[in-house]
Amino acid sequence: MTNEGIKVSSIENCPVCNKEGKILYQNLKDRLFGAPGTWSLMYCADCDIAWLNPMPIPEDIPKLYTEYFTHEAYTPKGSFISGIKKRIKASILKSSYGYDIDGGNFFLGKLLSLIGPLEDIVGGSVMYLKSYDRGRILDVGCGNGLFLSWMKELGWEVVGVEPDEKAVKVAREEYGLEVYQGTLESIKFPDNSFDVITMSHVIEHVPDPLTLLYECKRILKPGGKLIVITPNIKSLGCSIFGKDWLHWDPPRHLFLFSPRSLRVYAEQAGFVVDKLRSSAKGALFMWWASKIIRRDGKLPGGLPKNLSLWLKVEGLIFLILEYVLCKMKDVGEELVMIAKKEV
Hints:
Elements: E1 2-3, E2 6-9, E3 22-28, E4 39-44, E5 49-53, E6 55-56, H1 80-97, H2 106-112, H3 116-124, E7 136-140, H4 146-153, E8 157-162, H5 165-175, E9 179-181, H6 184-187, E10 194-200, H7 209-219, E11 220-231, H8 236-241, E12 255-257, H9 259-268, E13 272-279, H10 283-296, H11 309-326, E14 334-340
Parallel strand pairs: 7-8, 7-10, 8-9, 10-11
Antiparallel strand pairs: 1-2, 2-6, 3-4, 4-5, 5-12, 11-14, 13-14
Protein backbone atom coordinates (compact mmCIF):
# COMPACT_ATOMS: atom_id res chain seq x y z
CA MET A 1 0.00 0.00 0.00
CA THR A 2 1.44 3.38 -1.00
CA ASN A 3 0.52 7.02 -0.51
CA GLU A 4 2.00 9.04 -3.39
CA GLY A 5 5.16 6.97 -3.35
CA ILE A 6 5.38 6.51 0.43
CA LYS A 7 4.80 2.94 1.63
CA VAL A 8 2.19 3.00 4.38
CA SER A 9 0.00 0.82 6.55
CA SER A 10 -3.54 1.58 7.73
CA ILE A 11 -3.87 2.23 11.48
CA GLU A 12 -7.57 2.45 12.24
CA ASN A 13 -7.47 1.31 15.88
CA CYS A 14 -6.12 3.05 18.96
CA PRO A 15 -2.52 2.00 19.72
CA VAL A 16 -3.32 1.98 23.46
CA CYS A 17 -6.72 0.25 23.83
CA ASN A 18 -7.16 -1.16 20.28
CA LYS A 19 -10.65 0.34 19.93
CA GLU A 20 -11.60 1.83 16.58
CA GLY A 21 -10.48 5.44 16.37
CA LYS A 22 -12.46 8.42 15.07
CA ILE A 23 -11.31 10.60 12.19
CA LEU A 24 -10.24 13.94 13.60
CA TYR A 25 -9.12 15.60 10.36
CA GLN A 26 -8.65 14.23 6.86
CA ASN A 27 -7.20 15.14 3.45
CA LEU A 28 -4.22 16.85 5.09
CA LYS A 29 -1.05 17.75 3.21
CA ASP A 30 2.41 18.66 4.45
CA ARG A 31 2.14 22.40 5.11
CA LEU A 32 5.82 22.97 5.92
CA PHE A 33 8.24 21.02 3.72
CA GLY A 34 6.21 19.60 0.85
CA ALA A 35 6.53 15.89 1.64
CA PRO A 36 4.24 13.78 -0.59
CA GLY A 37 0.98 12.14 0.45
CA THR A 38 -2.51 12.89 1.75
CA TRP A 39 -3.10 12.07 5.40
CA SER A 40 -5.71 11.80 8.14
CA LEU A 41 -5.48 12.23 11.88
CA MET A 42 -7.26 9.71 14.09
CA TYR A 43 -8.25 10.17 17.73
CA CYS A 44 -9.27 7.94 20.64
CA ALA A 45 -11.30 9.82 23.24
CA ASP A 46 -10.94 7.02 25.78
CA CYS A 47 -7.13 7.20 25.72
CA ASP A 48 -6.75 10.86 24.69
CA ILE A 49 -4.22 10.16 21.94
CA ALA A 50 -4.03 11.10 18.25
CA TRP A 51 -2.15 9.39 15.43
CA LEU A 52 -1.46 9.65 11.72
CA ASN A 53 -3.35 7.40 9.32
CA PRO A 54 -2.17 5.86 7.11
CA MET A 55 1.16 5.41 8.91
CA PRO A 56 4.42 5.47 6.90
CA ILE A 57 6.38 2.24 7.29
CA PRO A 58 9.70 2.78 9.14
CA GLU A 59 11.81 2.25 6.02
CA ASP A 60 10.06 5.11 4.19
CA ILE A 61 10.00 7.64 7.03
CA PRO A 62 13.28 9.28 5.84
CA LYS A 63 11.45 10.30 2.63
CA LEU A 64 9.37 12.67 4.75
CA TYR A 65 12.47 14.61 5.85
CA THR A 66 14.27 15.36 2.58
CA GLU A 67 13.49 19.10 2.87
CA TYR A 68 13.37 19.22 6.69
CA PHE A 69 15.14 21.81 8.85
CA THR A 70 18.75 22.38 7.94
CA HIS A 71 21.39 21.14 10.35
CA GLU A 72 24.06 23.78 9.93
CA ALA A 73 26.31 24.71 12.81
CA TYR A 74 24.99 27.61 14.88
CA THR A 75 27.02 30.83 14.67
CA PRO A 76 26.24 33.16 17.59
CA LYS A 77 25.61 36.80 16.73
CA GLY A 78 27.66 39.45 18.47
CA SER A 79 25.01 42.18 18.60
CA PHE A 80 24.14 44.30 21.63
CA ILE A 81 20.75 42.57 21.95
CA SER A 82 22.30 39.10 21.84
CA GLY A 83 24.68 40.18 24.60
CA ILE A 84 21.74 41.19 26.79
CA LYS A 85 19.98 37.89 26.08
CA LYS A 86 23.13 35.98 27.00
CA ARG A 87 23.41 37.84 30.33
CA ILE A 88 19.74 37.23 31.13
CA LYS A 89 20.13 33.52 30.37
CA ALA A 90 23.32 33.20 32.41
CA SER A 91 21.77 35.00 35.38
CA ILE A 92 18.62 32.85 35.48
CA LEU A 93 20.62 29.63 35.08
CA LYS A 94 22.87 30.74 37.93
CA SER A 95 20.08 31.60 40.35
CA SER A 96 17.48 28.96 39.47
CA TYR A 97 19.56 26.03 38.20
CA GLY A 98 22.92 26.42 39.94
CA TYR A 99 25.15 26.82 36.87
CA ASP A 100 28.06 29.23 37.42
CA ILE A 101 28.28 30.95 34.02
CA ASP A 102 30.42 33.94 33.13
CA GLY A 103 28.31 37.07 33.02
CA GLY A 104 25.60 35.64 35.22
CA ASN A 105 24.42 37.62 38.24
CA PHE A 106 22.65 35.69 40.98
CA PHE A 107 20.49 38.56 42.23
CA LEU A 108 19.56 39.70 38.73
CA GLY A 109 18.62 36.08 37.97
CA LYS A 110 16.40 35.91 41.06
CA LEU A 111 14.58 39.02 39.91
CA LEU A 112 14.22 37.90 36.29
CA SER A 113 13.01 34.46 37.38
CA LEU A 114 9.87 36.16 38.70
CA ILE A 115 8.89 36.64 35.03
CA GLY A 116 7.41 33.17 34.64
CA PRO A 117 7.51 32.76 30.85
CA LEU A 118 11.12 33.95 30.75
CA GLU A 119 12.18 31.52 33.48
CA ASP A 120 10.43 28.66 31.67
CA ILE A 121 12.14 29.47 28.36
CA VAL A 122 15.59 29.60 29.96
CA GLY A 123 14.92 26.43 31.97
CA GLY A 124 13.97 24.67 28.76
CA SER A 125 17.43 25.44 27.35
CA VAL A 126 18.87 22.96 29.88
CA MET A 127 15.82 20.65 29.81
CA TYR A 128 15.10 21.80 33.39
CA LEU A 129 18.18 19.97 34.71
CA LYS A 130 19.93 21.43 37.76
CA SER A 131 23.70 21.59 38.15
CA TYR A 132 23.58 18.92 40.88
CA ASP A 133 22.05 16.47 38.35
CA ARG A 134 25.28 16.50 36.32
CA GLY A 135 26.50 13.18 34.98
CA ARG A 136 26.34 11.28 31.68
CA ILE A 137 23.54 12.54 29.47
CA LEU A 138 22.15 11.08 26.23
CA ASP A 139 20.15 13.32 23.90
CA VAL A 140 17.95 11.26 21.57
CA GLY A 141 17.33 13.05 18.27
CA CYS A 142 20.14 15.48 19.00
CA GLY A 143 20.11 17.16 15.56
CA ASN A 144 23.24 19.20 14.95
CA GLY A 145 24.37 18.80 18.57
CA LEU A 146 23.80 22.40 19.66
CA PHE A 147 22.06 21.38 22.90
CA LEU A 148 24.75 18.81 23.74
CA SER A 149 27.49 21.33 23.02
CA TRP A 150 25.84 23.70 25.47
CA MET A 151 25.46 21.01 28.14
CA LYS A 152 29.11 20.01 27.67
CA GLU A 153 30.08 23.61 28.44
CA LEU A 154 28.04 23.32 31.63
CA GLY A 155 30.01 20.29 32.81
CA TRP A 156 27.98 17.33 31.56
CA GLU A 157 29.43 14.22 29.91
CA VAL A 158 27.43 14.18 26.65
CA VAL A 159 26.40 11.57 24.06
CA GLY A 160 23.92 11.91 21.20
CA VAL A 161 21.86 9.78 18.82
CA GLU A 162 20.53 11.16 15.54
CA PRO A 163 19.21 9.43 12.39
CA ASP A 164 20.10 12.28 9.99
CA GLU A 165 23.54 11.80 8.44
CA LYS A 166 24.12 15.50 7.74
CA ALA A 167 23.23 16.50 11.28
CA VAL A 168 25.55 13.85 12.72
CA LYS A 169 28.39 15.18 10.59
CA VAL A 170 27.88 18.71 11.93
CA ALA A 171 27.71 17.49 15.55
CA ARG A 172 30.94 15.53 15.16
CA GLU A 173 32.97 17.93 13.03
CA GLU A 174 31.81 21.34 14.28
CA TYR A 175 31.26 20.56 17.95
CA GLY A 176 33.50 17.52 18.47
CA LEU A 177 30.71 15.49 20.04
CA GLU A 178 30.22 11.75 20.51
CA VAL A 179 27.14 11.24 18.34
CA TYR A 180 25.87 7.97 16.88
CA GLN A 181 23.87 7.78 13.65
CA GLY A 182 20.68 5.73 13.73
CA THR A 183 17.73 5.10 16.00
CA LEU A 184 18.19 4.55 19.70
CA GLU A 185 17.19 0.89 19.40
CA SER A 186 19.75 0.28 16.64
CA ILE A 187 22.72 1.60 18.66
CA LYS A 188 22.32 -0.98 21.46
CA PHE A 189 23.96 0.86 24.33
CA PRO A 190 24.82 -1.32 27.36
CA ASP A 191 22.38 -1.56 30.26
CA ASN A 192 22.55 1.21 32.87
CA SER A 193 24.67 3.55 30.71
CA PHE A 194 23.25 7.01 31.43
CA ASP A 195 22.23 9.25 34.31
CA VAL A 196 19.83 11.28 32.16
CA ILE A 197 18.12 10.82 28.79
CA THR A 198 16.53 13.81 27.06
CA MET A 199 14.10 13.82 24.13
CA SER A 200 12.85 17.19 22.91
CA HIS A 201 10.19 16.93 20.19
CA VAL A 202 11.24 13.39 19.31
CA ILE A 203 8.69 10.91 20.65
CA GLU A 204 5.98 12.22 18.31
CA HIS A 205 8.19 11.31 15.31
CA VAL A 206 8.75 7.61 16.07
CA PRO A 207 6.55 4.75 14.83
CA ASP A 208 6.65 2.86 18.14
CA PRO A 209 6.83 5.22 21.16
CA LEU A 210 6.41 2.43 23.71
CA THR A 211 9.39 0.46 22.42
CA LEU A 212 11.45 3.66 22.50
CA LEU A 213 10.51 4.22 26.15
CA TYR A 214 11.38 0.63 27.05
CA GLU A 215 14.82 1.12 25.51
CA CYS A 216 15.30 4.35 27.46
CA LYS A 217 14.51 2.55 30.68
CA ARG A 218 16.95 -0.27 29.89
CA ILE A 219 19.92 2.02 29.32
CA LEU A 220 19.21 4.42 32.19
CA LYS A 221 20.98 3.84 35.48
CA PRO A 222 18.75 3.02 38.47
CA GLY A 223 17.36 6.33 39.68
CA GLY A 224 18.14 7.94 36.32
CA LYS A 225 15.90 10.59 34.76
CA LEU A 226 14.05 10.65 31.44
CA ILE A 227 12.95 14.10 30.29
CA VAL A 228 10.48 14.31 27.41
CA ILE A 229 9.13 17.44 25.72
CA THR A 230 6.40 16.93 23.12
CA PRO A 231 3.36 18.81 21.70
CA ASN A 232 0.18 18.84 23.78
CA ILE A 233 -3.09 18.04 21.96
CA LYS A 234 -4.97 19.62 24.88
CA SER A 235 -3.25 22.97 24.36
CA LEU A 236 -5.04 26.27 23.99
CA GLY A 237 -3.49 26.72 20.57
CA CYS A 238 -4.78 23.35 19.38
CA SER A 239 -8.31 24.25 20.47
CA ILE A 240 -8.14 27.61 18.70
CA PHE A 241 -6.52 26.58 15.41
CA GLY A 242 -7.97 23.09 14.93
CA LYS A 243 -6.56 21.45 11.80
CA ASP A 244 -4.28 24.47 11.24
CA TRP A 245 -2.40 23.94 14.51
CA LEU A 246 1.33 23.89 13.75
CA HIS A 247 2.13 20.81 15.81
CA TRP A 248 -0.08 18.38 13.91
CA ASP A 249 2.71 18.56 11.32
CA PRO A 250 1.50 15.76 9.03
CA PRO A 251 3.12 13.50 7.95
CA ARG A 252 6.13 13.71 10.32
CA HIS A 253 4.25 13.65 13.62
CA LEU A 254 3.01 10.07 13.93
CA PHE A 255 1.63 10.12 17.50
CA LEU A 256 0.51 13.11 19.54
CA PHE A 257 -0.20 13.04 23.24
CA SER A 258 -2.25 14.58 26.00
CA PRO A 259 -0.98 14.62 29.60
CA ARG A 260 -3.03 11.48 30.26
CA SER A 261 -1.82 9.43 27.30
CA LEU A 262 1.84 10.40 27.79
CA ARG A 263 1.64 9.30 31.42
CA VAL A 264 0.06 5.98 30.39
CA TYR A 265 2.86 5.29 27.92
CA ALA A 266 5.58 6.12 30.44
CA GLU A 267 4.03 3.97 33.15
CA GLN A 268 3.50 1.07 30.74
CA ALA A 269 7.25 1.20 30.03
CA GLY A 270 7.95 0.94 33.76
CA PHE A 271 8.79 4.55 34.58
CA VAL A 272 7.68 6.43 37.67
CA VAL A 273 6.40 9.82 36.52
CA ASP A 274 7.83 12.45 38.83
CA LYS A 275 6.45 15.56 37.10
CA LEU A 276 4.15 16.07 34.15
CA ARG A 277 2.96 19.54 33.23
CA SER A 278 2.34 21.73 30.23
CA SER A 279 4.50 24.68 29.24
CA ALA A 280 3.66 27.85 27.32
CA LYS A 281 7.27 28.50 26.28
CA GLY A 282 6.53 27.59 22.64
CA ALA A 283 3.30 29.59 22.46
CA LEU A 284 4.72 32.62 20.65
CA PHE A 285 6.19 30.64 17.74
CA MET A 286 3.11 28.41 17.56
CA TRP A 287 0.81 31.42 17.27
CA TRP A 288 2.80 33.00 14.46
CA ALA A 289 3.14 29.76 12.50
CA SER A 290 -0.44 28.59 12.95
CA LYS A 291 -1.86 31.98 11.95
CA ILE A 292 0.13 31.84 8.70
CA ILE A 293 -0.96 28.24 8.05
CA ARG A 294 -4.59 29.26 8.57
CA ARG A 295 -4.19 32.27 6.26
CA ASP A 296 -2.08 30.71 3.49
CA GLY A 297 -2.64 26.97 3.91
CA LYS A 298 1.11 26.43 4.25
CA LEU A 299 4.30 27.74 5.82
CA PRO A 300 7.17 26.92 3.44
CA GLY A 301 10.37 26.14 5.31
CA GLY A 302 8.58 25.95 8.65
CA LEU A 303 9.81 29.33 9.90
CA PRO A 304 7.63 32.48 9.99
CA LYS A 305 9.30 35.43 8.22
CA ASN A 306 8.56 39.15 7.83
CA LEU A 307 5.97 39.19 10.60
CA SER A 308 3.68 42.17 10.89
CA LEU A 309 3.77 44.22 14.07
CA TRP A 310 0.18 43.20 14.81
CA LEU A 311 1.00 39.49 14.50
CA LYS A 312 3.93 39.94 16.88
CA VAL A 313 1.69 41.70 19.40
CA GLU A 314 -0.99 39.01 19.05
CA GLY A 315 1.59 36.33 19.74
CA LEU A 316 2.87 38.10 22.85
CA ILE A 317 -0.66 38.50 24.22
CA PHE A 318 -1.35 34.83 23.55
CA LEU A 319 1.87 33.76 25.29
CA ILE A 320 0.94 35.69 28.42
CA LEU A 321 -2.64 34.36 28.38
CA GLU A 322 -1.53 30.77 27.93
CA TYR A 323 1.08 31.07 30.68
CA VAL A 324 -1.57 32.32 33.13
CA LEU A 325 -4.02 29.58 32.16
CA CYS A 326 -1.29 26.93 32.58
CA LYS A 327 -1.36 27.69 36.29
CA MET A 328 -4.90 26.29 36.41
CA LYS A 329 -4.99 23.68 33.65
CA ASP A 330 -2.54 21.90 31.33
CA VAL A 331 -3.25 23.99 28.23
CA GLY A 332 0.35 24.84 27.29
CA GLU A 333 1.64 24.05 23.79
CA GLU A 334 4.19 21.55 25.08
CA LEU A 335 4.16 18.76 27.61
CA VAL A 336 7.14 18.44 29.92
CA MET A 337 7.55 15.04 31.58
CA ILE A 338 10.24 14.10 34.06
CA ALA A 339 10.18 10.37 34.82
CA LYS A 340 12.54 8.15 36.79
CA LYS A 341 13.77 4.60 36.61
CA GLU A 342 13.21 3.00 39.97
CA VAL A 343 16.28 2.21 42.06
